[in-house]
Write a structure and sequence with these properties.
mainly alpha, 1 helix, 52 residues, single chain
Length: 52
């Protein structure tokens, strides 16, 4: 009985490609959400700091 090293390598590369294909949109979506929160327009334009 011989072990199929090439088949295992092919499956591993396919899984890496699949995970990469899922990671890129997730990163872009997370960046878009962060940008929206960062540019939040509901608060005051200038925040003042009160020193005592």
């Amino acid at each position: 009985m011989a072990y199929d090293w090439d088949g295992k390598r092919t499956r591993r590369l396919q899984m890496l490609r699949f995970m990469g294909a899922l990671a890129i949109p997730a990163l872009l979506f997370g960046s878009a959400i962060a940008a929206v929160e960062w540019t939040d327009m509901d608060g005051p334009a200038v925040r003042t700091v009160h020193f005592r």
